[in-house]
Amino acid sequence: MTRAYSLLSGLSRQALAVNATLRKPVRQVGVGALVLGGVFLAGCADDASGPSRSTATEAKPVAAHKVGVLLPLSGPNAALGRELLAGAQLALTQTAASPTDQAHLVVDVHDTAAGAGAAANAAVQAGDGILLGPLTSGETSAAAPTAVAAGVPMLAFTSDVGQARSGVWVMGITPEDQVQALVEQARREGRQHFAALLPDNPLGRAMGGGLQAACHDQGLPAPDIIYHTGTATSIAESLRQLSAYESRAAAARQATSIAGEGGAAKAEELPSDLAAALGGSGASPQPASTAGATAQAPAQSAALGKPPFDALLLGDTGLNLKTIMTALADTQVAAPAVRIMGPGLWAPFSSKLGNIRGAWYAAPDPAFRQTFVSRFVARNQHAPKPLADLSYDAASVARAAAQGTDTGFQRDVLTRHSGFPGVDGRFYLLPDGRVRRALAIFEVQGAGVPARILALAPVSG
């Protein structure tokens, strides 16, 4: 299904009546759905793309500024597709900032429910000069070959960085982007040795890959990474191995034993007058119940040395995170010796993470989003889902690339050094298809207090 219509900057709502049926109210989702949301988009509804395979299709000459939008407008993801379409419409119809900021945009909407590859083919055949979407990782994989072969830029809404390549940008806030921001901030704090205890699932693997890349990019030693299976035993054993618990405990026992022997020697060498006052034996009496207790004291009663890392990345939430907190206490891995870091998925419940007070996570600053939310509500009569942020940002890029030319889109504008002002902060499209976002670093306060913004993470690419 394809719908095409013309949009001018500042166009009235009535001109969009053709899409009125697409803007039905949907349930609002918390900000955590945007942070790392692409991990779910990487898998959800990939079957909606169908079994069709895309084949390269020769693009027709581009007419005016045709923006192809690839979204599910029918089927199980139709509500989400309509929400993202509304976000794109808002960006493409906003009032011009200046008399020169006028672009004749023709929006060509293609339903991906019957197959993202077929939708991409239809867009290329129609002469669309830039593609916004599709939604999931699987759909992006099916649609990208057609776009790349035709030389048509694609701004996909997945957060699967594995789909990024020259000409195909991943607009979602990726685990890799969050980890890059955390490592950069930790490095500025003086942290040099990174490790990670991560779940053995797509999110954990993405965070692990991001940590390896971040350490390499920033000239740091390769990190130690262990993936656990989710059981309490796996988590405990993995953290003991990662933190070198056995050798630290042995060193603590040895130090305690030496200290005990030194105390006994000193007792035997008491001055004669003091020894006589204590009973004339020359040694301090020691109750039988405590004799040898120092030498046999468990490692937990002694302060262990620092683990072989000064920053630890975690990727769990829920019950597994609670289990990890217990393991951290048992192995004496804690601040200030170690900076704990985690995913932006911690944002919705950060006030309950008192056991790891001082931990960091990277996420958008919600203050940036307020203007977009107000404008979206005024037009659509409901608050936007976080994923609508991505379609608005992508459409803003298309609009910027259309300026200064009568037809087509200026491809060099896409990767301009100044980037673009996004819903959740400034973002930058890199030549290799990655997208870097100016995320904020949040510090956990716990005790019912929301996390505080520590800094705006520098953007590296």
Automatic annotation (TrEMBL):
<dbReference type="InterPro" id="IPR051010">
    <property type="entry name" value="BCAA_transport"/>
</dbReference>
<dbReference type="InterPro" id="IPR028082">
    <property type="entry name" value="Peripla_BP_I"/>
</dbReference>
<feature type="domain" description="Leucine-binding protein">
    <location>
        <begin position="66"/>
        <end position="245"/>
    </location>
</feature>
<protein>
    <submittedName>
        <fullName>Penicillin-binding protein activator</fullName>
    </submittedName>
</protein>
<comment type="similarity">
    <text>Belongs to the leucine-binding protein family.</text>
</comment>
<keyword id="KW-0029">Amino-acid transport</keyword>
<dbReference type="GO" id="GO:0006865">
    <property type="term" value="P:amino acid transport"/>
</dbReference>
<keyword id="KW-0732">Signal</keyword>
<feature type="region of interest" description="Disordered">
    <location>
        <begin position="276"/>
        <end position="296"/>
    </location>
</feature>
<keyword id="KW-0813">Transport</keyword>
<dbReference type="InterPro" id="IPR028081">
    <property type="entry name" value="Leu-bd"/>
</dbReference>
<dbReference type="Pfam" id="PF13458">
    <property type="entry name" value="Peripla_BP_6"/>
</dbReference>
